[in-house]
Amino acid sequence: MTRLDEFVPGGAASRRAFLGLMGGGVALAAATAPAQASKVRTSARIVILGAGAGGASIANRLAERLDGARITVVDGKTEHWYQPGLTLIASGLRPASYAQSTTGEWLPRGITWVQEHAAEVDPEAKRVVTTGGQRLDYDYLIVSTGLVLDWDAVEGFDLARVGPQTGTGAHYAGPDHAVKTWQAMDAFTDRGGHALFTRPATEMKCAGAPIKYCFLTDDYLRRKGTRDASHITYAAHSGIMFGVPVINEKVRIIMRRQEVEVCYHHVLQSVDMDRRLATFRTQDGTAEIEYDFFNVIPPQRAPQVIRDSGLAWADRWTDQGWIEVDMHTLRHARYPEVFGIGDINGVPKGKTAASVKWHLPVVEDHLIAQIQGREGTASYNGYTSCPLITRVGRAMLVEFDYQDNLVPSFPGIVAPLEELWISWLMKEVALKATYNAMLRGRA
Amino acid sequence: MEEFSIGTFIAVFEEMFGAWLFWLMVAVAAAITVAYLYVLIRDHGMGMRRFLLAQLSMPVGAVAAVAFVMWVTKSRMADIGGPIDWIVLLGVAVLGAGGFSILVYVAQSLIRGRQEADG
Q1: Residue in chain A nearest B117 by alpha carbon
Q2: Which residues are CB-contacts of A121 (< 8 A; sequence separation ≥ 6)?
Q3: pLDDT digits (tens, 9 = 90+) for B56-105
């Protein structure tokens, strides 16, 4: 029999070869590690409004890149929410704690965190005043406040009554409400009935989330053997379910396969949580739909302080107040020392954590270039992504840009419009890790 | 995702498992690899009887690895949807088989003490 040590690193020659390979591997790793740019010296005063995904991440990146800058983060919220996890919590797959951490643990050393909200932003005077009356003058302002959920716009809805008693869910409201939504969905899927889903007519966080939650409820009904006794309605606010045509068509095909009834041009007006009755504005007037389980997602807008600041678009999204930034540089159109990151940006697409990830290097590049007196070169193409869950264990990884192109990260490997286990793994296992790495400024 | 580097991957794995657990797993994997190299060098090659038993243990490692991943990710075999899913699943099985067989080989070699390669 041939001695195996001719093939394994047992002999002296092969041992040397093996060690050489190891050394080569280390050299390769060193060569492919990102080159650390030298720090830029500045005494600029930078104010960051909001310490969520966008604010915390850019604070870390700027603290790493700048030497001497006075960075002040303004946010009164002490709890940080990993919002992409809310769908998993509302599906009973994760506890509330999965999405909960503290704001403080994500912020870098050497910056100032003002634990108050902004009360006034004056871009003419380059000044922010906080709810506690602190006056913060800035040279550069980064707006990363996120958005507010306008629950009051849904007449009759009471966030305190979400849960199995009313059959009404609100998984966007935060980790605790996502748990209550799961309790309502779990109780509903035990016995079946009529499930109702919708989305608001405003711009919204992750437009795929209402669709995912519809598919997950369908999956639980099937697993529990109550699907035959049930009916599912998806009430779309317009003539489509998803803004990217090719993805919309795929969603329509899956809805049909899963026997979900889709009705279009239904905008939620009010809900009667006792009678379990939702009222929609339609093209013909109003329509009432009775339900046994309903996940309410309200209209979404910029925080009032931003809407009052003069930073919002004057002629677009006037009822919502997103800030007027250039869609490629994310620099404000009228105030060149102001940048936007995340949900607050008035750009055509993408209020997701994936968008934040791609806003960050662009804002960092332009802001640092401006400090150095040169032009930045980075450009954001509108990339965003959504692991569109179609059942527990499968998802479609949809990635697209401003022009509705599909822009797959793994072309030829992970097919964008296929329901795959690997895309589920990305959502279930890898996404939070990537998000956390992003927050620390490392991804 | 065009900016993925080794540093990013390490950061993601640290976040996924927690830095301590991740580096502990790396250390355990490295320790088993070093132990494997040690017994290969010590015994001047592979012991074929030990290698045979290690090979026979491979299916156990493969099935265990797949079952573990399915359990951790709340998935079922029915969720395997396309070619890449099968490739990833086979990769998990191969890693499980390979890792477990090396573990079995090393464990036998260390328990039985020094033996010249018997192949």
Answers
A1: A3
A2: A49, A127, A128, A141, A143, A305, A306, A308, A309, A311
A3: 999 999 999 999 889 888 899 999 999 999 999 999 999 999 999 999 99
Any idea what DSSP says for residue A426?
I
Question: A323: helix, coil or strand?
Answer: strand
- Intra-chain end-to-end CA distance of chain B, in Å: 48
- Which 77-96 residues of chain A touch chain B by CB within 8 A? 93
Residue B111 sits at the chain A interface (C-beta within 8 Å):
no
Pick the residue from chain A with its C-alpha nearest to B51: A4
And the tokens for A174?
A: 């935060």
Residue B8 CA to residue B11 CA, distance in Å, equals 5
CA atoms within 13 A on the CB side of A331: 19
Portion 1-60 of B in contact with A at CB < 8 A: 1-3, 5-8, 11-16, 37, 40-41, 44-46, 48, 51
Residue B100 sits at the chain A interface (C-beta within 8 Å): no
CB-based contact (8 Å) between A425 and chain B?
yes
> How many A-B residue pairs are in contact by the CB < 8 A criterion?
108
CB contact under 8 A, B7 and A442: yes
Contact B5 A413 (CB under 8 A): no
Domain A40-147+302-371 matches domain A151-299 at the CATH topology level: yes
pLDDT at A442: 84
Q: Are the C-beta atoms of residues A389 and A212 closer than 8 Å to each other?
A: yes
Kindly state the percentage of chain A with pLDDT values over 90.
87
Backbone φ and ψ for A332, nearest 5 degrees, come out as: -65, 140
The domain locations on chain A are: 40-147+302-371, 151-299
* CATH code, residues A40-147+302-371: 3.50.50.60
For B46, name the nearest residue in chain A, comparing CA atoms only.
A4
What CA–CA distance (Å, rounded) separates A81 from B29? Answer: 34
Tell me which residue of A428, A401, A12 sits closest to B69, measured CA to CA: A428
Chain A positions in Cβ-Cβ contact with residue B6 (cut-off 8 Å): 29, 32-33
Give the predicted TM-score (pTM) of the model. 0.87
- Assign domain A151-299 to a CATH class: alpha beta
pLDDT tens for residues A315-346? 999 999 999 999 999 999 999 999 999 999 99
Six token digits for residue A44? 């600029």
Rounded to whole angstroms, the Cα distance separating A204 from B53 reads 58
B1, B3, B75, best to mutate vs chain A, most A CBs in 10 Å:
B1
Kindly state the tokens that stand for A161.
Answer: 């009554």
In this prediction, residues A81-85 reach a mean pLDDT of 96
CA–CA distance, A341 with A441 (Å, rounded to integer): 14
Going by C-alpha positions, the residue among B114, B105, B117, B97 that lies closest to residue B50 is B105
Nearest CB to B119 within list A4, A15, A428: A4
